[in-house]
Amino acid sequence: MKLQEYFLTEGAKTPYALSKYLKILPSNVYGWLRHNRNIPVAHCAKIERFTDGKVTCEELNPGYDWDALWNALSNREERRKNA
């Protein structure tokens, strides 16, 4: 689901609430929505949590290599378990 679609669903939180959650200006969120921009990678995981997984990192920024990030994080967790 795209972020724009999420905000149109019944019971969804508001773009303003998202801006407060991310500690950014509301104009940034409204700019993403208005111009259909990819969301900065640094915000994607937080937005996925904010939407309770209804909007995924991959949907927020499809141009980013999420598989590489998830693999790196998975390998990091394995190393920590085995340390």
Automatic annotation (TrEMBL):
<dbReference type="GO" id="GO:0003677">
    <property type="term" value="F:DNA binding"/>
</dbReference>
<protein>
    <submittedName>
        <fullName>Transcriptional regulator</fullName>
    </submittedName>
</protein>
<dbReference type="InterPro" id="IPR031856">
    <property type="entry name" value="YdaS_toxin-like"/>
</dbReference>
<dbReference type="InterPro" id="IPR010982">
    <property type="entry name" value="Lambda_DNA-bd_dom_sf"/>
</dbReference>
<dbReference type="Pfam" id="PF15943">
    <property type="entry name" value="YdaS_toxin"/>
</dbReference>
